[in-house]
Predict the 3D structure of the following.
Amino acid sequence: MSESRPITVGVDGMGGDDGPGVIVEGALLALRELSQETRVALIGDQRTLEAEVRRLDPSGSAGSRLLIEHAAESVGMGEDAATATRRKKDSSLAIGTRLIKEGRLDALFSAGNTGAMVAASLLNVGRIPGVLRPALATRIPAETPSGSCVILDVGATADCKPAYLAQFAVMGDIYARSALGVANPRIGLLNIGEEPSKGNELAREAHALLARAPIQFVGNVEGRDFFRGQADVVVTDGFTGNVVLKFLESVLGWTGRLLKDEVRTSLIARLGALMLLPSLSNLRRRLDYAEVGGAPLLGVAGACIVGHGRSSPRAVKNGLKAGASFVAQNINEQIQAALGKEMAEHVG
Amino acid sequence: MSESRPITVGVDGMGGDDGPGVIVEGALLALRELSQETRVALIGDQRTLEAEVRRLDPSGSAGSRLLIEHAAESVGMGEDAATATRRKKDSSLAIGTRLIKEGRLDALFSAGNTGAMVAASLLNVGRIPGVLRPALATRIPAETPSGSCVILDVGATADCKPAYLAQFAVMGDIYARSALGVANPRIGLLNIGEEPSKGNELAREAHALLARAPIQFVGNVEGRDFFRGQADVVVTDGFTGNVVLKFLESVLGWTGRLLKDEVRTSLIARLGALMLLPSLSNLRRRLDYAEVGGAPLLGVAGACIVGHGRSSPRAVKNGLKAGASFVAQNINEQIQAALGKEMAEHVG
């Protein structure tokens, strides 16, 4: 079984808003929870990473399960993805994705520059045969039976054609089966009305393709249906998906600030807010990126997982575990089988 | 001054989820707050509307300031907008928009089918010369100096070209000056990254046009910047804008339900929630559609205001007041001057 095959999960040691210490801490946490056969490779500046390992694991408990792959360069959070990918051939992202291609790494997690991770994955790992464009898939809390829904694409492919969305639906179906543990996911198309005739040209044409795809298509879902659990998977283009995801990220903070304004004027309300604090922080945790642990870049021929720039050590740990699980569940083999078959049908 | 000119504001008496009673109640509320020269015309089934007026204004206090224009048909909330507009020539929306065109009505508010209102306005009222496509503009709470930001388009034009967005920016600038009371609104482009090179093709090309437009362009704003007050006006296509608006509408209910889950497990938290209730309902009111009172359809040659299907009497009242204020502030004359001038420059 693939689950017991010894695998190596890599992590971009230089990516993320909070520096290599957070990444190394997350890697050490992951080693405690991953199977004994699984190794973690830190990719980045050797001396920096070695120093962090000595500081965070002074007893050397990680032993030979923690590797370091030196990378002379790194891509900053604000750098232009295309330029960085073209120029920095020795960045941690370039080296990590090349190690995937060479089969020396089984998965790669980065909390760094998302655009650069997507570009490096496409350049160095390449697409699964038959896949037109990749899609980033992430989970958001929703009132589905699993408590989550998968939304894709959230930012890999900003300009989409209907056929891309049809493939996103098939890839999202496969990913949701393992990520949400749902046997037959309900797939919805993000649109601005319920009827098939509604929406922009892209959505209308994608609707027709999704209706014929080998998935359980439940039709259009609107912005307000996200949380109502009408679909386990919501398909959209990378522009709309990214806007929605960032909107969602900011909404909790915003409602919190508005509520704080209201509360300020009343002593009773302030006391009430104090008594609610534990519930509020539970809620915050449920909505936290760290719980999810990263968005897989579906459609590339390797397990490439993107994390939030603000990833905590726990988020890094969960991202590494997501990578290991992505490999163990043979997601890419399933995608290749499904889209290869679809291609064969189109050709034949 | 235009403010003292006697005007007539019409309302679609048959539109909205809750029936004509709510509309008539809102119209009566509006008459109390509008100037004595302003009249309100109810458009819809005469007998139904007369019965509601008798029920809600038994003393006949509204007198000659409340008119009824009979419409033999009405457009249902779920009806296809194009079909309804083509077939129902005597719907309240068709008659209301024709009355605008004939100059017998100065403004029209409808809480009914948004798509049908847009279609009827385009067909019967037509666009302001020089305007390529109309845009629905609405206000959402944000941490700007005015406490709100205007977002457009939220659903009139699902498929946009860069030039449409450039015009939306100019129209949004004019509308925000009066709606937010901001002297020189900061205009942002909704996008998925800060740099001009980011986004889909539409956003990248629109960025270049906005940078040259006669507005205070502050560049790209991301989904998370909505609430941070980085822009007074956020420009986007009608597909993305509608998704975001519906998402926003559902978010409060969703966080409330999640919080209720959390609170259930603790007596202290439940007590705290009870003490917070007044603040929570204040907050709900601040986010309520009713406060805003309708979204003007910018770019059509009349004051056509769209309300939420769930409009309360107060929302209808505010929608009618928004229509009167739109006329009084000469928004359309300003749009025509700005876009006519722009056209002349392009031609000349």
